[in-house]
Amino acid sequence: MNFDEAIHRIKERISKPLPGKNAQLKMSPQPVDERRFDLITPKSHRKGAVLLMIYPEGNQAFFPLIKRPNYPGVHGGQIALPGGKMDPTDADLIYTALREAEEEVAINPQKVTVLGSLTDLYIPASNFLVKPVIAFSEEIPDFVPEAREVQQILPTPLLSLFDKGILMRKKLIVNQGLELDTPYFEIQKEMVWGATAMILSEFLEILQSQ
């Protein structure tokens, strides 16, 4: 999918009702943790945002994923979108997404145009309610990973999401020995699962819709 077509599709679709839970569920580990979809999240939850930013390279549309360093915690070593928690001084969650992307991979917010956002997703493991912000840049960013938070940047062709060959499943053992039947995208030999895969699933459905 070329860059111009991708931006056109997103602009046409992002203002309409979103696929939401039905699209997210396609990539949700089983058994489903229904807390993800409760209308009321815990009062103690934290707010955060991630940035899914499209940019052109050779007339094709790309977006960056990141690999977190291996560290103690629920998300160590995982593949994610740039982003993080909302600071008290952030004007809103769009600002959070742009600020975090600048801090983590040096995306210049002055060169980013925000198109909208996908459905908020609650992550029980870290108690975050995450807003996925969709945006684009007309330039290839000069990515620089922040060493403490980003082990590797993975420039990802948008067209790769349409390849059914990257859809995989495996059994994962997580907290307290719980076994999950886990769907995931295999992207650049990395396992993209959990909340990131669920966000990408909704994004893919938007791109595929007419």
From TrEMBL:
Q: Which SUPFAM superfamilies match?
A: Nudix
Any one GO molecular-function label of the UniProt entry = metal ion binding
What InterPro entries does the record point to? CoAse (IPR045121), NUDIX_hydrolase-like_dom_sf (IPR015797), NUDIX_hydrolase_dom (IPR000086)
This protein's UniProt keywords: Hydrolase, Magnesium, Manganese, Metal-binding
Name the cofactor(s) required for activity, per the record.
Answer: Mg(2+); Mn(2+)
A Pfam family of the record is NUDIX
Gene3D superfamilies in the cross-refs? Nucleoside Triphosphate Pyrophosphohydrolase
Q: Where is the Nudix hydrolase domain?
A: 45-180
* Keyword Transmembrane in record: no
Q: What is this protein called?
A: NUDIX domain-containing protein
Which organism does this sequence originate in?
Algoriphagus faecimaris
